[in-house]
Amino acid sequence: MAPTLDVPKTVDWMGKTVPVWSMQTINYSSLLSQEPGEVDKVVNACIEEGYFYLDLKGIDGRRMLSDQKELQALMKRFFAEPIGVKNEFGLLSSHLGYEPVGSRTGVAAGTKDSYEMLKVSRDEIQADSPRIPAPVKNSADMLVLENAIGSCNTVTKVILSALSTGLALTGSGRFENSHRNERPSTTTLSMMHYLPHEIAGKDRIGHQKHTDISTLTLLFSDQWGLQVRPPGTCGAREMGFVEPKEGCAFVHVGDSLRFASGMKFQSCIHRVVPFDPTEHRYSIAYFLRAENDTMFIDSEGRAITAAQWHDEKFKAFTDPEMWQAMAPSSMILGGMKEDGEDEPIVVPAQVPVVMPMSVPVQN
């Protein structure tokens, strides 16, 4: 089991001492009211770190937490189906459909990822007849998907509005005005299932370090496994875990918001590793993305649309590892610079790897 202390500083993981990085906590109800102190706090979190907890326990966020619980039950049922049923449509586009295990590069050198994913496009769910696999296309499940996407969309727009206010943006320059629901975008709700090591196989592990294509990522998981690299120049910063926090979502700044802010905001470098290689791990991510024709200046100084950036980066995720190594870091890491070297993760020769029932935490 994962550690349970509120703010641990390090954790023993796979024979190593690994940091557990802290995150600022932003109160959603205060953000919804655009209270000046909370607006300043969320702006500073995006400038200094590029990630934060979003506290949804107040009356304004409880519906979202309820929607996520229903969605988690739906995704567990879906991922228990045979592969042929899950893959009814395959991957219709980079932001819609089913991705099987091993579609992307994994954490350890020479490995593939260890997760399968169901992606539901916001544009698609607004259509008259969305292309959703049969196991979750009944009326009850469709309502769950619609509610989850609707609540995620509202929450991320509230954050964008607060950031616009905090930066004194006006008119069309406000971030939310390039994220209108009626305009085409690659905004997606993704449900991810990380398989236990003994099922996925030793050549499939975690999810490589990267920054997100999105404007904002709203991430839900009550299981350990997410690691971030804090930005900064005061010494080497290594990848470390962040602790799941009850009643809170993780929020990551993505590349598009970094570009739109004129590089003021940090894009969060993160990855997913198997904290306990014997468990099934589930997470839900809402990737809010700008309208397809929104123009940015990217980290290489290119004028590029949101749709072009999405397509180029998605291709980089699925490219062979050798090609990724030759590509500029601006693609996988969104132009973010790394301050430290990661210790290589070595896939154990024996599977399954049994983790201890309790993991000691050092203060």
TrEMBL record:
Record-linked Gene3D superfamilies: B-lactam Antibiotic, Isopenicillin N Synthase, Chain
Source organism of the structure: Ophiostoma piceae (strain UAMH 11346) (Sap stain fungus)
Residue ranges annotated for the Fe2OG dioxygenase domain, each copy included: 184-290
Regions annotated as coiled coil: none
Stored InterPro entries: DIOX_N, IPNS-like_FE2OG_OXY, IPNS-like_sf, Iron_ascorbate_oxido_reductase, Oxoglu/Fe-dep_dioxygenase_dom
Gene Ontology BP term (one): small molecule biosynthetic process
Organism phylogeny: Eukaryota, Fungi, Dikarya, Ascomycota, Pezizomycotina
A single GO molecular function term of this UniProt record: oxidoreductase activity
Keywords per UniProt: Iron, Metal-binding, Oxidoreductase
Family according to the record: Belongs to the iron/ascorbate-dependent oxidoreductase family.
Entry protein name: 2og-fe oxygenase family
